[in-house]
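Possible regression after last week's pipeline update?

I re-ran a chain I had predicted before the update to compare outputs. Posting the input and the new output here so someone can diff against the archived version. Not blocking, just want to make sure nothing changed silently.
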Amino acid sequence: MSTVIRVDGIAKSYGEVRAVDHVSLEVGANECLALLGPSGCGKTTLLRLMAGLETPDAGTIAIDGADMTRTPPYGRPVNMMFQSYALFPHMTVADNVAFGLKQDRLAPSEVEARTKEALAAVELEALGARKPHQLSGGQRQRVALARCIAKRPKALLLDEPMAALDKHLRERTQLELLALRRRLGISFVVVTHDQDEAMTMADRIAVMDKGRILQIDTPRALYERPATQGVARFFGDINLWPSGLVVRPERIALSRASGDMEGVVIDIIYRGTATTYLVQTAELVVRVLRQNTGGDDDAQKGDKVFLSWPADAARMLSA
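New output (post-update):
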């Protein structure tokens, strides 16, 4: 897989605060890389450095094989989509999409062709004459996306692209973006604090904290083989013993007959497809996740139970 973006030793500080601390990574052709982490971890600053909206204190950024470290945003073959979408309210949908192309002084026929192509790609070709206020939130997001892809960038940089959408629309839009990326062959770099969104959209995820990358890998590898307790916490629930032992709730078997660890059920949380049992043991409250298969379960609050798990389910992780 060829490399579209290569970041090598990038650092950026604001006064005494090191926002990005000598980060290195690569984004492959037609790959979606998610930058995941809590607020203030440096993920948006890293994205802005790739876009040329910030100047690094150290390190280099290469895009499509060319050094772009000091190249201004308009000279880079990438486009950035912001949380606010930044649509011009007085312009039609088509004019919003065409704006950047006109700024690049393309021929009117080329502007028209690319605008139609971009609107068709996001399935909004019938709404080109509308104004942004006449669209739903999801449609406005697709207009912003069409404006980005109309310029045919090598990579699309998305800063919390689904933050303003409700849960159901967010999930649907994630799948739409996946299909669009595959169809157009554009690399995506997505900033998010939502691990479910990162795991749905990304081929690889870079988990960040305090300006550094803690681990970068596929969603499956990060979930099943986290490098630290901090990384493990980003992906679902964990049971963490004082010794540093980590076991996922779904890997723990609960029995009323026998097992490796004894406890008492202190609470039961039913969520339709699965049930979580909170089991008080000598060291901590252990979460046990069981899928609901239609049968009745005889474990009740107050019952004495036994817990066990296979050897490959447990990992010793540092903080």
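Follow-up from reviewer: compared with the archived run. The helical segments are 43-51, 93-103, 108-121, 137-149, 167-184, 195-201, 219-224, 229-233. Marking as no regression found.
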